[in-house]
Amino acid sequence: MNVKGLADKLLLTVKRNWERYEKSAGENAVDILEFELGEMENIFALLVLGSFVGFPSPPMQISLELLPEMEDHLKLMINKVDMANEPLSNLFSVFEVI
């Protein structure tokens, strides 16, 4: 092979590897951002509905205005309280056995 053929082959290999890297990094970045978003939502829920766990709560007017936004988190917290005394059912719900 001549030098041009080797250079083209090397360039093609580098390009393929770069595309693989971009794809894996992009997928990983989305997962990390989704995880961070979930953690921020949990922190926000603790700030607004902190009275469930003993944190000082914000003024009632602010909590009532944010309540429609907190519907899913409120349901989640109530479900956690219901399952607090039943660790086996909590384990089954995590693994989605049924």
Structure description:
- The protein is an all-alpha fold and 98 residues long.
- Helices cover 77% and strands 0% of the residues.
Summarize the structure.
By secondary structure, this protein is an all-alpha fold. It is built from 4 helices and no strands.
What percentage of the residues does DSSP assign to strands (E)?
under 5%
User: Could you estimate the helical fraction of the residues in percent?
Assistant: over 70%
Distance between the termini: 61 Å
- Radius of gyration over alpha carbons? 25 Å
Structural class: mainly alpha
Estimate nothing, just give the exact number of structural domains.
1
**Structural shape:** elongated
Number of strands: 0
The biggest sheet, with number of strands, parallel, antiparallel or mixed sense and barrel status, is: none
Task: Give the integer mean of the pLDDT values.
Answer: 79
Q: What is the H-and-E element order?
A: HHHH
Secondary-structure topology with pairs:
Layout: H1 3-48, H2 60-66, H3 71-83, H4 87-95
